[in-house]
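The records we work with from here on pair a chain with its fold. A complete example follows; check for yourself that the lines match position by position.
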Amino acid sequence: MQLKDLFRWQTTASQPVVVDDMTLTLQSRIVSLHMPAGGFDWSRPTAVLVGRNGQGVPLPIIDTTRLLQVGLFGLSLVITFTLVRLVPFTQRKKKVS
């Protein structure tokens, strides 16, 4: 079994929806992991394609919650590594009397 059979990353588009003279199409990114015993699919919206008069303009969807989560995770790593570097190794060891 090859890696491309197990792991897939693709961008898909929904069925277009017509509102007045505009056509709206949702674009999503799908990450799939398929194994013989089961699998996992994760999908998130990435953009809305707004079409008018035969021309389409993609409007990106910015997931601020995900950006904040990644930022907080990075900040926690920086704080952890800074504290580990500041506290001398001899103070971290507990002395047994």
